[in-house]
Write a structure and sequence with these properties.
Blueprint (H helix, E strand, L loop, with lengths): L1 H9 L4 H4 L12 E3 L4 E4 L2 E12 L2 E11 L4 E12 L2 E11 L5 E10 L2 E11 L3 E10 L8 E11 L3 E11 L2 E12 L4 E9 L3 E11 L6 E10 L3 E12 L5 E11 L17 E14 L2 E10 L4 H5 L1 H6 L6 E7 L3 E8 L8 E16 L6 E14 L17 E13 L2 E3 L3 E14 L3 E4 L5 E2 L10 E4 L3 E13 L2 E10 L4 E19 L50 E16 L2 E17 L10 E10 L2 E9 L7 E12 L2 E11 L7 E11 L4 E12 L2 E16 L2 E11 L10 E11 L30
Antiparallel strand pairs: 1-3, 2-3, 3-4, 4-5, 5-6, 6-7, 7-8, 8-9, 9-10, 10-11, 11-12, 13-14, 13-43, 14-15, 15-16, 16-17, 17-18, 18-19, 19-20, 20-21, 21-22, 22-23, 23-24, 24-26, 25-26, 26-30, 27-28, 27-29, 30-32, 31-32, 32-33, 33-34, 34-35, 35-36, 36-37, 37-38, 38-39, 39-40, 40-41, 41-42, ...
Length: 781
Amino acid sequence: MSRFLLVSALLISLSGMAYAQFESFSDKPVEITADGEQNFSNGVAIADNNVQIHFNGVAIYADHAEYNPDTRDVLLVGNVRIYSGEDLFTGQRVFYNLETKQTRALEFDGSHYPLKFNSLAARGFGTRQFTLRDSDLTTSDSSMPDWHVHAKTIRIYPNDRVVLLNSTLYVGNIPVFWLPYAYSSLNRNGFQFTPGYYSTWGAYLLTAYTFPLGTGDSFLATVRNDFRSQHGYAIGFDANLKFGRDDRNVGKFMVYYTEDTNPSAFKDALPEPTNHSRYRVGFQQKLYLADDIYATFDLTKLSDADFMQDFYPIENQTNPQPDNNIAVTKLDDIYSLSLVTRWQMNEFQETTERKPEAAIDFKQEPLFGLPIFYDGTTALGQLNRVFSTNAPNYSATTPSNINYGTSRFDTFHQLSAPQTLFGWLSAIPTIGIRGTFYGQGGSYQNTNGIIQPVPYTSTSTNSMHTTGSVFRPIFNASLENSFKISRSFEEIQSRWLGLDGLRHIFQPYSDLSYAYAGGPNVNQVLQFDRLLPNNPSQPTKSGYQPSSTQPQPLDFPQFAAIDTIDTWAIWRLGVRNRLQTRRNGSTYDWLYLDTFADMNGINPYMNGPLSNLNNRLTFAPVSWFNLRIGSQVPLDSQGFSEFNTDFDIMPVRNFDFTFGTRYINNYNGTTDNNQYPLSVFWRANDQWSFSAYEIYNTQPGQANSFIYQRYMIHRDLSSWVMSFGIQVNQNQSTSTQSAYNQYGALITFTLKDLPQVTLPLAFSPSTQAGSSGSSPLSPSH
């Protein structure tokens, strides 16, 4: 009966969990007691008056029960109550077989948090299917629920799918939505609706419906039908596939198309497409060819450079240029072997092509049983660097000879010997050698013959000058040292600060790293795996000052910019401080601080004898307080300042506050910038709450302003929360975007007890099913 209870209660969202409830009861005793008459007639045990049946953790109560130990059938009549954990099932007449799981019931209801349900009749056919008649489902804990779904027939296929026939959504007693047929699976399913307004879209309605192709969840399809008042209609189709042993082979196909009626409404800095037909076609898959061999596919064809920014603004924040590659990988205990093919499918995306490249990577393993470890990698491939055909600022004057390509053979081998000296000092000496052969060398030169690290400067386009084949030998050596000192303070106890004793761990460390690059200068080597120069007009020794402000790794193979390796001698000194306490039966980092700086004997990527002083702080003493700081402060005149902080606090139960800073000053080639993100959530009372998210920007040459604002009002409607929000986005001018304002509005309804549910039948987040995940006013902002 516990199987029927759980499946009936969970219906759509939790049917898969119920499968685990079933097991053979043949060897389990069935205990039956009653206050009234008990007898055994014709092989059937009969009991009356407060009958109690216990088996396998399930308690059953009824006025009358008949149990046949030979067939394992049990008949329950009158005030039937079944308890299984926190679940409750009540009914008037139930027939259940403990072995086959066949079930028949009349006039029953029950609960499984957060769902409440009732049904006129039910019939179950083992673990394969259950059929419910005239059923109601809600999360409202009231005799008069403020919403419910009523279905004439519900067919439940455990651990698979649910089908509803002739179902109606009611708000109060008012029917608001009717479906003759509805399907729901365990993962992604159902309808999704996202209405709203966005200044570059106009009024919009994004809809999606997911359904199976075949049986089960192995092949789910999503159909999209979207409307944007400024751009017209759009249609899309997604197919999600899983197959093979343990469903380890997964794949996704997507296509999205619109006949854009007004592409200029997006106001991008890049030229808008003249063709109004805009689309995206993508295919991703991981396919196991054997237990230790798998292939991956990642393919995306776009109609134009602006498509992702215009129609998938959320995804564009993390993946603005979808890749195109196919790879085959073989895994082993000590090595991995890969073959990768990568090419430029979209001509407006700069791409480092690999046609193809094969590589073998050896994991760090003991060498011949000695206390010496070996690791290394070897790769051979045909590499091409292909630039965008419509890159901003220089597309009109870009010559065709800026693209380049060559064959490259790279092999790297390294030995290390970790050891502990004097019983307390950790030491890891490392030596390595690398050889990189290029079928062709070359460099960019401007009109006066000076070598430049990139094909473009702010005023001119440099031309490529090639040479013959080149070889670069590279030697590296390093010595890492560290030790720990700790002290415990058991007397420090504070519930308010979350302290159950305190232990301080002090760990100084150093990493002395040396690399020697022979052969031609790094600026005379074609760049494929590279660092990106931050500002070509202010070059470092190599000309390849990283565009990232974060310190580069000093060791190999962590430093992966093969073609940018130059001679260096750098000593990184630092200290880690940890304050630890006991929490939930384990050790908890109450405070963590990592402080370090580099002494630059030779640093080709940074000017000056010293790096910045870097600090990485995490302080989380209690669940309602969290502080994270990442900072850099200059130690000489050529350094720069950077402060990134996040401060979260919930001082009282109905108020949550988050504040941060994003500050950078005096970094070569970038404009000083300071941003202050702020978010607030305030619960005014049981019905009303308010949330806000703002980013305040201060930047030289621009007026101080809020560059992003989002405000939401939330109304608790018993089982539901209604949210209405507006946003204002004051875009700053960039190479791919004009300076202009955007406005948006959105209204949503969310079940409090099931926030992942979008009624009537969607039990998955909107970002997973259909195009509604692309809504510009998204909580992920």
